[in-house]
Design a protein that fits this description.
two-stranded antiparallel sheet, seven-stranded mixed sheet, mainly alpha, 20 helices
């Protein structure tokens, strides 16, 4: 027995080593460039740290205004200590997600060990550790990517709390934090908890106690600022703007994205992207590898059938089974996600559950096989993981670097230096380089930005900057020979024909007249 326990510990150490290395190595430069959303999250954190306000002048906002339609705030707050210590850069904006991604692998192990078996726990955590999707999102500093970790933490401590009620408060805290991680879980969290509590009461696994009441109070208190935020943006109450806390009124509230009439088409889309394991967002998944490797889908379906059968049996017997909570988790996450046009970001609350189904499906198949195929399956996934890592750090890096305009930081630095030499000449920015990326790379003074920014399409939920300071998003047909142009390498030909000097920085370039 002691030898087996030692062996299990060595295996989970090996799995965690894979999780750490695949999420940490060269995270500052892989993926190349910076996504517009992670740039804005980082800039908002930097602004709050250095100016005490976000880019719209709000102190300690419960939700960020950013583009006009808003962005969840937790990501920026988690970045604060790292930006304070190491400055604003691609490393510091990615550290929170990287740490939570690594932690998620271990939390899944703990959850499955408690609810199924050590074998299932080791397999499930291994599958998450080598998952292309999870590795990719753990290396990005986008707000949406936080949600799966907090859902997983909330569910784990909820299950632990069924045995030791004091853990319900910890569960409530993670659920509360999850509400600030991504708005897509605002429907999922209360509905999942309500249905799960009804089930647990039905099977006599939970009862009213001081801890359960305290947990409800904690969750309600944490959710209250967001409830006020919704009321503000439904124009029920005025916005709150104070030095202590701010509840902003967005330029355009995105509540209109929830449309019941689009439910059938959204459901079909959700099923398609899960079958294909690709949502056409190259930062979420690679079509050759998918979420958990393309050949895994049949095993997920088998796992779903096994868990559904176990859940039905448990309900009939009126006994507790994690399979029931798993089915509640999946059904409610899908139902809440398909209220809007979905992608893996908007439906990511369900994704940890898919790895549980995958592990259950693989183990069921191994148990039914005449020969021991368990280690063959592990070998196949390790082999696929190796191919994925090879692709991610080579061909994918070229694709994503071009998409996210790697080299823009150096191009902007060069353009700003030339602008200073030309007595503050205008810097014309290609439309593909978003204003959030310019703010991020240049660390543009927040108060100046608030005073100076002009918009192309105000009011709108997806605002596009026209100008601030010397930066101007207008590289149209007319040319300003006294200006400096930050453009794409693919846009060079016309500038070269007009006699501009060119400096190339990866996928960006600077064009100017001497």
């Amino acid at each position: 027995m002691k030898q087996k326990i030692c062996s299990d510990k060595m295996i989970i150490i090996g799995i965690m080593s894979i999780a750490v290395l695949s999420r940490v190595i060269a995270i500052r430069t892989f993926p190349g460039g910076v996504h517009a959303d992670e740039a804005f999250s980082g800039y908002e954190a930097w602004s709050l740290l250095n100016y005490g306000v976000d880019s719209w002048g709000y102190h300690n906002p419960v939700y960020l205004t950013v583009w006009g339609g808003g962005m969840s705030v937790l990501n920026s707050y988690l970045m604060l200590p790292f930006i304070k210590l190491f400055g604003l850069n691609t490393l510091t904006v990615r550290i929170p997600q990287m740490l939570l991604g690594i932690l998620s692998v271990y939390v899944l192990y703990c959850l499955l060990k408690k609810t199924y078996s050590t074998k299932t726990a080791l397999l499930g955590s291994f599958l998450l550790a080598v998952s292309p999707w999870h590795i990719m999102v753990s290396r990005y500093g986008m707000d949406a990517n936080l949600a799966p970790a907090f859902v997983l933490l909330g569910i784990y401590f909820f299950v632990v709390g069924l045995e030791q009620n004091r853990y319900f408060v910890i569960s409530a805290m993670f659920w509360g934090l999850g509400l600030y991680a991504y708005a897509a879980v605002w429907i999922f969290v209360p509905v999942f908890l309500a249905v799960s509590i009804v089930y647990c009461v039905y099977v006599r696994s939970i009862k009213l106690s001081l801890q359960t009441v305290l947990s409800a109070v904690v969750l309600l208190a944490m959710a209250l600022p967001l409830l006020i935020f919704v009321a503000v943006n439904l124009r029920i109450v005025p916005e709150i703007k104070s030095a202590v806390i701010s509840v902003p009124k967005l330029i355009e509230f995105r509540g209109d994205e929830l449309e019941l009439r689009d439910l059938p088409s959204n459901l079909i889309l959700a099923l398609k992207i899960f079958i294909k394991q690709y949502d056409y967002n190259i930062w979420n998944a690679i079509p050759y590898f998918g979420l958990y490797y393309l050949f895994s889908t049949p095993f997920v379906i088998i796992g779903a059938a096994v868990s559904a059968k176990n859940a039905v049996r448990a309900l009939k017997r009126r006994e507790f089974s994690f399979d029931v909570l798993l089915m509640i988790w999946i059904i409610i996450a899908f139902a809440s996600a398909v209220l809007q046009r979905t992608n893996f970001n908007r439906i990511n609350a369900v994704l940890p559950a898919m790895f549980i189904l995958l592990a259950n499906g693989l183990i069921w198949c191994c148990d039914k096989a005449k020969h021991n195929v368990y280690y063959i399956i592990i070998f196949v996934y390790i082999l696929c993981f190796g191919f994925f890592e090879g692709y991610y750090f080579t061909a994918y890096q070229d694709i994503i670097s071009e998409r996210q305009l790697a080299g823009a930081d150096k191009a902007l630095e060069s353009a700003m230096e030339k602008s200073r030499l030309h007595d503050g000449g205008k810097i014309y920015i290609t439309a593909q380089l978003r204003h959030s990326q310019v703010l991020f790379y240049t660390e543009y003074p927040t108060l100046d930005y608030i005073d100076e920014v002009k918009w192309k399409n105000y009011p709108d939920k997806y605002l596009e900057a026209y100008s601030f300071g010397n930066f101007l998003w207008d590289t149209g047909e007319s040319f300003d020979d006294s200006g400096i142009y930050v453009i794409l390498r693919s846009e060079l030909e016309e500038y070269e024909q007009r006699g501009y000097d060119i400096e190339i920085f990866d996928y960006c370039a600077v064009a100017y007249m001497n």
